[in-house]
Each structure stands twice: as structure tokens, then as C-alpha cells.
Amino acid sequence: MAYRVAEDRHLLAMLAPLPRPKQQPNLLLAAVRLLCGTPRGWEEFRACVEAHREEVLATIMAHRTQTNEPARCATLLPLLARLPPPLALLEVGASAGLCLLTDRYGYDYGGHQVEPVQHSGVEPPIFACRASPGTPLPCRGLEVAWRAGLDVEPVDVNDPDQVAWLEALVWPDEGDRLRQLRAAFAVARAEPPRVVAGDLRRDLAALAAQAPADATLVVFHSAVLAYVAGAVWVANEAPDLLLDPPSDRWPEGRFVLTCDGRRVAWTDPHGTAIDWLA
User: Fold this and answer.
1) 176: Cβ contacts below 8 Å, ≥ 6 apart
2) N or C: which end of the chain has fewer CB within 10 A?
């Protein structure tokens, strides 16, 4: 679809006046899915844009690429489980806060099962993740004493319109990913995580100060770079954003998981694999 859009002068002319942050393929593709469902081919996609031109543009302008991938918890868990419990989890760019619920999901690392520590009364998702032989897989889930998220525009898990947008951003050929997302939403609705509206540049320190003094404060993120002195900094990002020197080589299509700036694993961006580094 993206290649066909790139070849369509009419659609390019429609998109060209948009601000550069809004000229993202994900925004256009998700807007069409939200308004018309998943198209079966290019002609159906093109017809939807033509029939709903103003609605497509308005949807793009009103939204951001704000995914919330709970399966990433499977790649965070081996590192988080090595930190002194209990943990105080603070996620930057938390969206709906689904990645704050690490202790409420189940995990399957190729037969090594990790059960949820907290049960919310609904069936939790079980995230399958391939782990390299050296990955320190935990025997049990996390002990979480406190959790909070920070986001410029938090997503309300009880708002159908906001949830529908997050679902529209899931690639249409990954049905299991959508099923797991919906299962994570069900867990979150049973006991919604606290996500505070705020800006990383001015509000992070105040939120971090609310964490219990006797818990290990962990500031983590998967799409935003941040550092807080005195806390454990866990980052799960594209390698060119974290590695120094930037010319360092890395596996194609992978994120790098770091702890206080030290790389500890290569991870799949959608949480389906982790390769621990010695």
C-alpha cells in the first residue's frame, strides 16, 4: 500500500500540505482502517481515501502514532527480574500504560513458563518470546510495589474511540498481536494503571519523587529517550539512538535493550524475541 501511495501523485498532493510529523505512513494507513476497515487491496484503499478525503485528513491531524505494545514486557522481564525487589515502575511515553502491567501477564520462552504474579480476574495474555541460551530467564514474575506512567496524551483504556485507534495501528497481517493487545486491555480495565498527563522535560522528576523510598525505581521506555540520575535506566530502543559510536553494527530490524547505558540484549521491536549478550 505504501509503495502505491508513493506512486500516486493525487494522494501525494493531498498529503503534502500536512505538517511533516503528520506525513507518516502509519497515520494514513491507520486512518483508512479506522474509517473503512482493513482494505482487501489497493483499489479498495484508494476508494476509501477518495470517499472520505476530509475525514482521513482530520483523523491524521487529530492523532499520533501512539502504539502500546504489551508484548515488549517479555523482553523487559529478564532484566527487570534481576533488579532488587520490590520495583517501582515508571514508564515514559506510557500511552495506555499496558507495559506497566508486567507482573499481570504470562510469558512463554520456548517452554519456560512465567506465570502472572497479580491476577485481575480476567484471562491474561501469554506472550511468546524466543530467548537465546544465555538469557537469564526468571522463575517467577516481578514484585511491583508502585507503578505510574507519563505521557503527553494518555490513552484511556475505557474510551472506545481511543482504544480503536490503538487497534487500528496494529499491522493487519498480525492477528495474534491484535488478540494479545485486546487481552491486555481487558487486564488494564480491571485495574487501570495510573498514567499522568505531562511532559518528560518538566514533569518526570516530580512523578519519580512519588515512588516509595524502599523500592527500586526503574524508569523505562520503548520510544522515548530519558535519563534520571539515581534511578536504574532501562531503554528498549532502535540501536542508532542508543549505541555509541553510532557506526557500531547491530542485527538488522532489532532494538537494543540497555541498563544504565550498558547493552544487555538484542530484542524484537514487538516483543517476540530476546538475545541476551554476555
Assistant:
1) none
2) C
